[in-house]
Every structure is written in C-alpha cells, then in structure tokens.
Amino acid sequence: MRLAFSTLACPDWTLEQAVDAAKRYGYEGLELRLLDGQLVTPALSSEQRTRVRRVCSDAELALCCVDTSYKVADPAAAIEEAYGNLELAAALESPMIRLFAGAPAGEDWDTTVKRSAERLAALAERGRGLGVRVALETHDSFAAGKAVADVLAAVPDDYAGVLWDTLNPFQVGETAEQTYAIIGERLIHIHIKDGGVEPDPGECRLLGEGRVPMQSILKTIGEHGYDGWLSVEWEKKWQPQIAGPEVALPQYADRLRTYFTELA
C-alpha cells in the first residue's frame, strides 16, 4: 500500500508547494482535487495540464486520482461532464477519477440504482479506452458500502470500482469488517479520514483523535491483500476551522506508518 494525499488539504498552496510537502512528509502520490486552490475541472488549460504532468514527474510523484464532483445518480447531471473528466485524467496520466452519488431525496431506490448503474457502465466503457478507471465513493446518498455495492452489482466491468471513504460508512453504522465484506471485491481506492466526534461528527480529526477504527480497517484490507493507494483526505478547503496541512499531513503519514509497523 502506498500513501497519497488529496490537494483538498491545502487550499492555500500552489501545486509546487503541495508536491514539495508530499516529498518531505514521505508521501508517494498526490490526488488532484484543487490546483492552486481552485477546483480542477475539464476546463483546465493545456498549459496547466502540461505543468501538472511535469511537476509530478520531476518529483517522481504519482498522480493517483483526479477527484470530480460528478454525481451518477443526479438526473440533472450531464454525462458529458464525466467524459470530460475521464479525458482530463488521461491527459494528466492519472489512472482513476472519483465520482459521487447525488441521488434525489425520496426517489425509489431501484430507480436510483438503475440510473447510476447505466451511467457508471457507460463511464467504465469510455474509461477503458482511455486507461482510466472510475471509482464510486461511499459518500452522500451512497455513504454505506451496501448502497455502492447495489450499483456495482449491475456493472460487471472491472474499470468501475469502489472508493472507500473510511469515515462515511462508519457514520451510518457499518463496521470495517462489514464494509469490506460488501465492497472488498470491487475496492480500488481508499480515502483515509478520521472523525465521528460530537458535536460535529463530519469534521475531520487528526488520525487517532476520532472514532474511525483505522487499525481495524488497515488490518482487514491487509489480510485481504489490498495493494492500492491510501489517500489522506483532509478537508481543509471545506472545513477551514481544522488544522492546517502542515500539521495534519505529516501527522497522518507518521501515524499510518506506525500502524503499519504494529500490524506487521
């Protein structure tokens, strides 16, 4: 397993600063959500695309995922947007994009699953031609592993898989073992995030200061041979009150390495 972090953690940093920090803190990859503090979209210029490739390549840092805001269950979401994100990831030499759910409140579940699966299948097919996989995150209306698994069950293409956000399934009552049992066969990416503490259970906490059973999660995925990325998602962009990246990113990396040693 290799460590990365999402640039969501560092809204005030340039790409160059994020890459430099990744090297200093011992990360091997970067997950692109923000570029110089701005959300990354398919509108990214050719000059910026070249810059991202060059800066990461020069630092020998992998770009493990491009995070999108595309919602597969949202009836109003145009699939062309997601196609654009696939093409962006291919241009940046990233092997994966992240997708959200966004199901309408109160909609019949079978309808939600059908729409999501149809879109996910189309995106996986397009992604295969580009060498880019699509990862549906345990997030918002699909926070539970069971919800994501219902959609993936209708999409056999292995270019579609699951991104396990470690906080969200825990928040809706799934244990690490339950989540893995449900999604493990399709797991292709993991967001490492601690939290679950009142009065704001959704607020990110330094690793070990929240309630997410991270050691149990690492033990579970290790026993099943997971060899993908562990990407720290410190949501400083959305939660300005939490610690800065210069505090959280080295703390997560150091604590994760300690857990690896303890579990070895």
Give the secondary structure arrangement, pairings included:
Layout: E1 2-6, H1 15-25, E2 29-32, E3 34-35, E4 38-39, H2 46-58, E5 62-71, H3 79-91, E6 96-100, H4 109-130, E7 133-137, H5 145-152, E8 160-165, H6 167-171, H7 176-183, E9 187-192, H8 214-223, E10 229-232, H9 245-263
Parallel strand pairs: 1-2, 1-10, 2-5, 5-6, 6-7, 7-8, 8-9, 9-10
Antiparallel strand pairs: 3-4
Helix pairs in contact: 3-4, 5-7
Give a quick summary of the entry:
The protein has 264 residues and is α/β, with parallel strands linked by helices. The chain has helices spanning 15-25, 46-58, 79-91, 109-130, 145-152, 167-171, 176-183, 214-223, 245-263, and strands at residues 2-6, 29-32, 34-35, 38-39, 62-71, 96-100, 133-137, 160-165, 187-192, 229-232.
Shape annotation: globular
Number of strands: 10
- Overall pLDDT level: 96
Kindly, what is the distance between the CA atoms of the first and last residues, rounded to a whole number of angstroms? 13 Å
Main beta sheet strand tally, sense and closure: 8 strands, parallel, barrel
Question: Helical segment tally?
Answer: 9
Strand order of the largest sheet: 1-2-5-6-7-8-9-10
- List the uncertain runs: none
Strand content: 15-25%
Instruction: Please trace the helix and strand order, writing H or E for each element.
Output: EHEEEHEHEHEHEHHEHEH
How large is the radius of gyration?
17 Å
Structural class: alpha/beta
Oligomeric composition of the shown chains: single chain
Percent range of helical residues: 40-55%
